[in-house]
Amino acid sequence: MENLDKYIHDNLAAFDEEPSNGHQHRFQKKRQKTQRRKTIFLISQTAIAASLLLFITIGLFPIREQVDKITIVCEESDDMKACYLSQMYDIAAHIETLTKDMDSWSKEIVDSEIFFIINAAKDAETYIPEELPAEESKQILAACYQQKVEGLRDIVELVNENNHLN
To answer: What's the rounded Cα separation, in Å, for the pair 123 and 36?
Structure first.
């Protein structure tokens, strides 16, 4: 630290000088290169995201195949959350068997989506306001859980279609 203080003190006049000719031009060139790299990076990230979105949505438009659906009515269950989570885990296990021969990158995407859906279902109760009547809260949670189960079923259909294409 002493050396830095001494250097600054000895060269104080140099800090008041204007930069050499062309400095501004060189600085702008470096800045443009950095901005160009950022732009290329953003474009490539957007392309990857668009490709992923396309991959996921391709399977949503064809006529839906009948998927083995679990027909347990969880709203009448003593523990609705556990009932729906059990269904989700069963569907996730089925997806695991369907993806065993899938390439690792695609399998990782599918696994992360399953993880996201199931964790969102686990935390769903935390987003329901306590002021709501119990019956209304139950209906909202049931709809949320049903949506998560349907999301997993959609993944089953997408994986089945992907397996048929390969």
So the answer is: 41
